[in-house]
Every structure is written in C-alpha cells, then in structure tokens.
Amino acid sequence: MHTLEQLKNGELKGTVHLNLSENLSQFPSEIFDLADSLEVLDLSNNQLSELPQDLNRLKHLKILFCSNNQFTCLPPMLSLCPKLEMIGFKSNKIEHVPASSLPLKTRWLILTDNKISELPESLGQLVNLEKLMLAGNLLTKLPQSIHSCHKLGLIRLSANQLTEFPDLILDLPKLAWLAFSGNPFCQGDKTHSQIQKMSLDSFKLHEVLGQGASGIISKASSSDENNLPIDVAIKVFKGEVTSDGYPEDELDACLSTGLHPNLVKPLAHIKEVDCSALVMELIPADYINLGQPPSLKTCTRDTFTQGQSFSIKQIEHIVQQLESLVDHLIKHKVSHGDLYAHNVLINHQSDILFGDFGAASKYQMLEDYQQSGIQAIEKRALNYFIDDMLSLCQPQDRDTQPYLQLKNKLSLITE
C-alpha cells in the first residue's frame, strides 16, 4: 500500500504497481507523473465516482482496480487506454455500461455487486475476453453477441434477475467454469431433511482455519450431546453477495451433493436468525493445497509451486478420484463451477479432498439439452485439470502408456 504523501513528494517515481486507498474523492493528478512506468493501478476502497478524461495518458496501464467506490457508470474513457486488459469495478453503484467503455484488449472484466441491468452488444467485440464476473447485478438477459467471445473460460452470472437460462453460452468453446445460482429461473426447494439442524451454542469455536469470499472456517469443539466428533470445522457464512453468488446457494448446493469419499463431509447445519453455518468433518492436518489460484497473467488457469511434480501413477490416482467426483456431481445435478486444483486438498498418498461450493449451481429444473450442456462445461474443466496435472508429470513418465492415455482424454480442450 502506498500513500498520497509519497506520491505527491515524488517518492514513487518508476513505480509499476500503485495502490492508493485514502478515502479519495478525486483522482490524484500526480498519478500521471508515473505514466512512463505504471502498469497496475489499484484505487479500490475510496470514494471515487469518476476518472479523468485523459486517463489514456497512462500509456502502459494494463490493470485497473476501482472496487468499493461510488461509480454509477463504467467510465467511457477506459476504452482509450491502449494496453488496458483487466478491469475491476466490484461493489460500486454502476447502473450503466456504455459500449464505449470496454477496451478491445479486455481479458478480464469484473463488475460484481453493482446494479447493472443490461450489457451492451459491443461485448461481443471483446474477442480476447477470458473471465467475466457479473454476479450480484440486475441482469435479465445477456447480449446476443456474447457467442463471439470464443476465449471465455469463466463466467459468473449468479445472483442476477435472469428468468431463463442463457443458452447462448452453451456453445462457447472454452467455457469451463460457470456459476448461475440465485436467479429466478433456478429457484427451488432448499430444505435438507437428511442433515441435522443444530445451534451454534452447542459448539465452542477455536482458531480460524481459513477465510474465503463467502465465510470464515474455524476449528470447533462439539458438545457430547451432539453425537458428533469432538473436533470439527465450522464455516460461518457471510450474508452479502460474493464474487460467485449468494452464500445461501453455496450452502444449498453443498448439502445437495450427498456423500462422496473425496468431498469434505458435512455433519450438521446451523440456521439461526443472525447466523448460517455448516458443520464439517475436520480435515486431517497432512492435507495441503494441490494448486494455487490463477495469476493476473494466467487469468483462468491455475498456477503451481516451482518444482512441483508427480509420477504418472500419482496423477492417475488423482484424476480417477476427481473423475469419480464429477460423475457423482452429475448424478445429483449439481455443477461445481470451480473445478480447480487450488480447490483440491491432497495428502502424501495422493488422496484428495474437494470443497468450496461457492460457485456451485443446481440444475435439475432445466431442460435436458441445457443439463447436457452444463455437464459438458463441467467436463471441460475436468479436462483442463487433467492437462494441468500432466504438465506436472515427471519427465521420465511422459512416454508411458498411462500418460498417453490421459492425453487422449483432453478432447474437449480446443485451442
């Protein structure tokens, strides 16, 4: 994090990545002093409502974050920035997205948690668009032109006002990660009689184990009368919309999948006036993350630790488990929407556990062809996962029959 004082004193000359959060209501003109070097500008968590008309003076700007501000319109001058490819305006008050606001180089567009009811047809001109984050808006339809966005790999449409499933996206050749829960067309029963309901008072919370967009996971102790393991994990959901949708839909999808050996096991549901939570089995301490989230460079594809590798035998075991899990999800008509290595936990025996249903969507209410299309999208994500695993295969195993057989499973990946 930088300071406005540093900027005004000229201490940031040559800065490539500038991050300013000081309750700003106006764009500091001194930012233009960095025009020869600045590539990433983060002005999130301020009070900005407009940007300067000559923003294109920042001729090297590639990434612009303006989340948690006061914008009501996506600034039209964005399209004039010659290198701008990643745009983030999450949690503003945006109602209007002008056709002129979208740079043709855009790869990653984040408009989560705004008030957008319509997108321009010019969206289809963004032939480089790979990631489109639209959860938590007022969209009733998508522009017809979206079918031209052939590089789109990830779309978040949850928590909008779509009255019909957008069939347009089913033919996108690279779409692999899709979230659409929380729309009028997919409303349904969210009661789960098969899992017991409990009070948060019957548990004692301990240290935080992890925190995500939808909630906080803590270690907890269960009372004897609960008839549960003594040590459990509890995820307390936040109430607001996340980048993937509503936390209540995450909980519903998780409870709708049933039990599987590679899923973190839910034990109980806590539903109180001011608290919604899921009690889960505590994950053994020897499990670690298989992958890391996509970077600004990779956009939709996971990253991995330098030097990370697996034998083909380990990869076969990992893939077989995830294939079994995908089949299980299909049986229960739940799309996970986030089949990524960074959501997979793995131990030394290459046993995996999968969780994080933040982007999951139930689709039993849809037509058969729509269900088939959604399943094909999910299987494409599985193939990308296999592709990532094979990229980590130890060199001595790359000429083996198992390796070649897995390579042949990648038919849904199109270049």
Characterize this entry briefly.
This protein has 415 residues and is an alpha/beta fold. Helices cover 16% and strands 19% of the residues. The strands form 4 sheets. The protein has an 8-stranded parallel sheet. The protein has a 6-stranded mixed sheet with strand order 9-13-14-12-11-10, with helices on one face.
Characterization of the model:
This protein is 16% helix and 19% strand. The protein is an alpha/beta fold. The chain folds into 3 domains: 1-152, Leucine-rich repeat, LRR (right-handed beta-alpha superhelix); 199-281, 2-Layer Sandwich (Phosphorylase Kinase, domain 1); 288-407, Transferase(Phosphotransferase) domain 1 (Transferase(Phosphotransferase), domain 1, Orthogonal Bundle). The strands form 4 sheets. The protein has an 8-stranded parallel β-sheet. Strands 9-13-14-12-11-10 form a 6-stranded mixed β-sheet, with helices on one face. Strand 17 (344-346) and strand 18 form a beta hairpin. The protein is globular, with a radius of gyration of 23 Å. 40% of the residues are buried.
What tags apply to this protein structure?
single chain; 415 residues; alpha/beta; Leucine-rich repeat, LRR (right-handed beta-alpha superhelix); Phosphorylase Kinase, domain 1; Transferase(Phosphotransferase), domain 1; eight-stranded parallel beta sheet; six-stranded mixed beta sheet; 19 strands; 19% strand
Give, in order, the helices and strands: HEEEEEEEEEEEEHEEEHEEEEHH
Average pLDDT, all residues: 93
Compute the gyration radius: what is it? 23 Å
Second rung of CATH, namely the architecture of the largest domain: Alpha-Beta Horseshoe
* Name of the CATH homologous superfamily of the largest domain: Ribonuclease Inhibitor
Strand arrangement in the largest pleated sheet: 1-2-3-4-5-6-7-8
Total domains, how many? 3
Overall 3D geometry?
A: globular
- Helicity, in percent? 10-25%
For the record, what CATH class of the largest domain applies? Alpha Beta
* Share of β-strand residues: 15-25%
Structural class category: alpha/beta
Unreliable spans are: none
Give the number of helices: 5
CATH topology value of the largest domain: Leucine-rich repeat, LRR (right-handed beta-alpha superhelix)
Number of strands: 19
